Amino acid sequence: MRSVVVTGGATGIGYAVAAAFAAAGDQVVITGRREGPLKEAAQRIGATAVAFDAADPAAVAGALPALPAHVDVLVNNAGGNTSFDRPDPADGDLEALAANWRANLDANLLSAVLVTAALTPRLTDHARIVTIGSIAARQGAGSYGAAKAAVEAWTASIASELGPRGITANVVAPGLILATEFFRDRLTEDGIGQRVAATRNRRAGAPDDVAAAVLFLAAPTAGHVTGQVIHVNGGAYLGR
Protein backbone atom coordinates (compact mmCIF):
# COMPACT_ATOMS: atom_id res chain seq x y z
CA MET A 1 0.00 0.00 0.00
CA ARG A 2 1.47 3.31 -1.09
CA SER A 3 1.05 6.78 0.37
CA VAL A 4 -0.23 9.15 -2.34
CA VAL A 5 -0.72 12.93 -2.25
CA VAL A 6 -2.80 14.59 -4.99
CA THR A 7 -3.07 18.37 -5.02
CA GLY A 8 -6.23 19.88 -6.45
CA GLY A 9 -7.99 16.59 -5.82
CA ALA A 10 -11.56 17.71 -5.23
CA THR A 11 -12.79 17.81 -8.82
CA GLY A 12 -11.99 16.99 -12.43
CA ILE A 13 -8.64 15.44 -13.29
CA GLY A 14 -7.35 15.54 -9.72
CA TYR A 15 -10.41 13.73 -8.43
CA ALA A 16 -10.17 11.05 -11.13
CA VAL A 17 -6.49 10.52 -10.32
CA ALA A 18 -7.14 10.28 -6.59
CA ALA A 19 -10.08 7.92 -7.11
CA ALA A 20 -7.94 5.63 -9.27
CA PHE A 21 -5.23 5.39 -6.63
CA ALA A 22 -7.81 4.79 -3.90
CA ALA A 23 -9.45 2.05 -5.98
CA ALA A 24 -6.03 0.40 -6.26
CA GLY A 25 -5.83 0.21 -2.47
CA ASP A 26 -3.44 3.11 -1.87
CA GLN A 27 -3.72 5.55 1.02
CA VAL A 28 -4.64 8.84 -0.62
CA VAL A 29 -4.52 12.42 0.64
CA ILE A 30 -6.18 15.07 -1.50
CA THR A 31 -5.55 18.79 -1.10
CA GLY A 32 -7.23 21.93 -2.35
CA ARG A 33 -8.34 25.40 -1.35
CA ARG A 34 -12.08 24.71 -1.03
CA GLU A 35 -12.60 22.75 2.15
CA GLY A 36 -16.25 21.81 1.50
CA PRO A 37 -15.86 20.15 -1.92
CA LEU A 38 -12.55 18.66 -0.79
CA LYS A 39 -14.09 16.89 2.18
CA GLU A 40 -17.02 15.64 0.10
CA ALA A 41 -14.66 14.23 -2.52
CA ALA A 42 -12.49 12.57 0.12
CA GLN A 43 -15.51 10.91 1.70
CA ARG A 44 -16.68 9.51 -1.64
CA ILE A 45 -13.38 7.77 -2.42
CA GLY A 46 -12.12 6.99 1.07
CA ALA A 47 -9.30 9.55 1.06
CA THR A 48 -8.08 12.12 3.58
CA ALA A 49 -8.67 15.82 2.92
CA VAL A 50 -6.15 18.53 3.80
CA ALA A 51 -7.26 22.02 2.77
CA PHE A 52 -4.64 24.65 1.90
CA ASP A 53 -3.52 26.91 -0.95
CA ALA A 54 -0.61 25.17 -2.67
CA ALA A 55 0.68 28.48 -4.07
CA ASP A 56 0.99 30.08 -0.61
CA PRO A 57 4.33 29.27 1.08
CA ALA A 58 2.96 29.83 4.58
CA ALA A 59 -0.09 27.68 3.87
CA VAL A 60 2.04 24.84 2.52
CA ALA A 61 4.31 24.97 5.57
CA GLY A 62 1.29 25.09 7.87
CA ALA A 63 -0.22 22.00 6.23
CA LEU A 64 2.85 19.82 6.66
CA PRO A 65 1.82 18.35 10.04
CA ALA A 66 -1.38 17.02 8.39
CA LEU A 67 0.42 15.52 5.39
CA PRO A 68 1.91 11.99 5.37
CA ALA A 69 5.30 11.43 7.00
CA HIS A 70 6.31 9.31 4.01
CA VAL A 71 5.16 9.92 0.44
CA ASP A 72 5.48 7.33 -2.33
CA VAL A 73 3.60 9.25 -5.03
CA LEU A 74 3.08 13.00 -5.40
CA VAL A 75 0.72 14.26 -8.09
CA ASN A 76 0.88 18.02 -8.63
CA ASN A 77 -2.50 18.68 -10.20
CA ALA A 78 -3.45 22.01 -8.60
CA GLY A 79 -3.72 24.83 -11.12
CA GLY A 80 -5.81 26.01 -14.03
CA ASN A 81 -6.00 29.03 -16.29
CA THR A 82 -6.47 31.96 -13.92
CA SER A 83 -6.96 34.27 -16.90
CA PHE A 84 -10.54 33.01 -17.08
CA ASP A 85 -11.15 34.63 -13.70
CA ARG A 86 -9.50 37.98 -14.38
CA PRO A 87 -10.33 40.82 -16.78
CA ASP A 88 -7.99 41.41 -19.69
CA PRO A 89 -5.62 44.26 -18.84
CA ALA A 90 -6.11 47.49 -20.73
CA ASP A 91 -3.51 48.39 -23.34
CA GLY A 92 -0.49 49.84 -21.55
CA ASP A 93 -1.58 48.71 -18.08
CA LEU A 94 1.62 46.91 -17.17
CA GLU A 95 0.64 46.49 -13.52
CA ALA A 96 -2.48 44.53 -14.47
CA LEU A 97 -0.52 42.54 -17.06
CA ALA A 98 2.09 41.60 -14.48
CA ALA A 99 -0.62 40.61 -11.99
CA ASN A 100 -2.30 38.35 -14.55
CA TRP A 101 0.98 36.63 -15.40
CA ARG A 102 1.93 36.17 -11.76
CA ALA A 103 -1.46 34.61 -11.04
CA ASN A 104 -0.95 31.86 -13.63
CA LEU A 105 2.67 31.30 -12.63
CA ASP A 106 1.64 31.01 -8.98
CA ALA A 107 -1.27 28.66 -9.66
CA ASN A 108 0.47 26.33 -12.08
CA LEU A 109 4.22 26.50 -11.46
CA LEU A 110 4.79 27.76 -7.94
CA SER A 111 2.14 25.46 -6.48
CA ALA A 112 4.02 22.42 -7.81
CA VAL A 113 7.42 23.80 -6.82
CA LEU A 114 6.37 24.58 -3.25
CA VAL A 115 4.57 21.33 -2.51
CA THR A 116 7.32 19.25 -4.06
CA ALA A 117 10.04 21.11 -2.15
CA ALA A 118 8.12 20.79 1.11
CA LEU A 119 7.59 17.05 0.64
CA THR A 120 10.99 16.16 -0.84
CA PRO A 121 12.43 15.16 2.57
CA ARG A 122 9.44 12.81 2.94
CA LEU A 123 9.70 11.19 -0.47
CA THR A 124 10.66 7.56 -0.24
CA ASP A 125 13.44 6.20 -2.41
CA HIS A 126 11.98 5.28 -5.82
CA ALA A 127 9.05 7.66 -5.25
CA ARG A 128 7.13 9.07 -8.20
CA ILE A 129 6.37 12.72 -8.96
CA VAL A 130 3.81 13.44 -11.69
CA THR A 131 2.81 17.00 -12.54
CA ILE A 132 -0.15 17.88 -14.73
CA GLY A 133 0.95 20.09 -17.59
CA SER A 134 -0.99 21.09 -20.68
CA ILE A 135 -1.00 21.02 -24.46
CA ALA A 136 -0.80 24.82 -24.05
CA ALA A 137 2.90 24.48 -23.18
CA ARG A 138 3.53 23.57 -26.84
CA GLN A 139 0.75 25.49 -28.57
CA GLY A 140 0.70 28.66 -26.48
CA ALA A 141 -2.03 30.26 -24.40
CA GLY A 142 -0.57 33.44 -22.97
CA SER A 143 0.56 33.30 -19.38
CA TYR A 144 -1.12 29.93 -18.81
CA GLY A 145 0.82 28.27 -21.62
CA ALA A 146 4.04 29.89 -20.42
CA ALA A 147 3.45 28.61 -16.89
CA LYS A 148 2.89 25.06 -18.16
CA ALA A 149 6.02 25.30 -20.31
CA ALA A 150 7.92 26.29 -17.18
CA VAL A 151 6.51 23.20 -15.46
CA GLU A 152 8.18 21.07 -18.13
CA ALA A 153 11.56 22.77 -17.61
CA TRP A 154 11.29 22.50 -13.83
CA THR A 155 10.37 18.82 -14.09
CA ALA A 156 13.54 18.18 -16.10
CA SER A 157 15.52 19.78 -13.28
CA ILE A 158 14.00 17.76 -10.45
CA ALA A 159 14.28 14.55 -12.48
CA SER A 160 18.02 15.18 -12.53
CA GLU A 161 18.19 16.29 -8.91
CA LEU A 162 16.22 13.39 -7.44
CA GLY A 163 17.13 10.69 -9.94
CA PRO A 164 20.04 9.30 -7.87
CA ARG A 165 17.46 8.25 -5.26
CA GLY A 166 15.49 6.37 -7.88
CA ILE A 167 12.79 9.05 -7.84
CA THR A 168 11.17 9.85 -11.18
CA ALA A 169 9.55 13.11 -12.25
CA ASN A 170 7.31 13.40 -15.29
CA VAL A 171 4.62 15.59 -16.81
CA VAL A 172 1.25 14.50 -18.20
CA ALA A 173 0.02 17.06 -20.74
CA PRO A 174 -3.73 16.89 -21.43
CA GLY A 175 -5.57 18.62 -24.23
CA LEU A 176 -9.35 19.04 -24.19
CA ILE A 177 -10.70 17.17 -21.18
CA LEU A 178 -14.44 17.36 -20.65
CA ALA A 179 -16.22 17.00 -17.29
CA THR A 180 -13.90 19.43 -15.50
CA GLU A 181 -14.19 23.01 -14.23
CA PHE A 182 -11.30 24.21 -16.39
CA PHE A 183 -13.21 26.37 -18.87
CA ARG A 184 -15.60 27.89 -16.29
CA ASP A 185 -18.60 27.11 -18.54
CA ARG A 186 -17.11 29.23 -21.33
CA LEU A 187 -16.49 26.40 -23.77
CA THR A 188 -18.95 26.38 -26.67
CA GLU A 189 -19.96 23.47 -28.86
CA ASP A 190 -17.98 25.10 -31.66
CA GLY A 191 -14.94 25.29 -29.39
CA ILE A 192 -15.28 21.61 -28.54
CA GLY A 193 -15.64 20.74 -32.22
CA GLN A 194 -12.51 22.63 -33.21
CA ARG A 195 -10.47 20.94 -30.50
CA VAL A 196 -11.80 17.48 -31.33
CA ALA A 197 -11.03 18.06 -35.02
CA ALA A 198 -7.39 18.71 -34.08
CA THR A 199 -7.02 15.24 -32.53
CA ARG A 200 -5.95 12.14 -34.42
CA ASN A 201 -8.61 9.94 -32.83
CA ARG A 202 -11.44 12.48 -33.22
CA ARG A 203 -12.65 12.60 -29.64
CA ALA A 204 -12.40 14.69 -26.52
CA GLY A 205 -10.51 13.41 -23.52
CA ALA A 206 -11.94 12.41 -20.15
CA PRO A 207 -10.42 12.71 -16.67
CA ASP A 208 -9.96 8.92 -16.59
CA ASP A 209 -7.70 9.15 -19.66
CA VAL A 210 -5.33 11.37 -17.68
CA ALA A 211 -5.62 9.22 -14.57
CA ALA A 212 -4.54 6.15 -16.53
CA ALA A 213 -1.37 7.91 -17.69
CA VAL A 214 -0.61 9.09 -14.17
CA LEU A 215 -1.02 5.58 -12.77
CA PHE A 216 1.36 4.23 -15.40
CA LEU A 217 4.04 6.79 -14.51
CA ALA A 218 3.50 6.10 -10.80
CA ALA A 219 3.93 2.34 -11.17
CA PRO A 220 7.02 0.59 -9.77
CA THR A 221 7.65 -0.75 -13.27
CA ALA A 222 8.00 2.78 -14.71
CA GLY A 223 11.27 3.49 -12.94
CA HIS A 224 13.22 4.16 -16.15
CA VAL A 225 10.76 6.77 -17.42
CA THR A 226 11.71 10.18 -16.08
CA GLY A 227 12.00 13.77 -17.27
CA GLN A 228 9.34 13.05 -19.87
CA VAL A 229 6.20 14.79 -21.12
CA ILE A 230 3.43 12.29 -21.82
CA HIS A 231 0.78 13.80 -24.08
CA VAL A 232 -2.80 12.77 -23.38
CA ASN A 233 -4.51 14.85 -26.02
CA GLY A 234 -5.27 12.53 -28.91
CA GLY A 235 -2.22 13.76 -30.77
CA ALA A 236 -3.57 17.30 -30.98
CA TYR A 237 -0.21 18.69 -29.86
CA LEU A 238 1.20 17.64 -33.25
CA GLY A 239 -0.84 20.31 -35.00
CA ARG A 240 -3.11 19.92 -37.97
From TrEMBL:
The keyword Glycosyltransferase does not apply. GO terms for molecular function: oxidoreductase activity. It holds the Pfam family adh_short_C2. Its EC number is 1.1.1.-. Keywords: Oxidoreductase. The keyword Oxidoreductase applies. Belongs to the short-chain dehydrogenases/reductases (SDR) family. This is SDR family NAD(P)-dependent oxidoreductase.
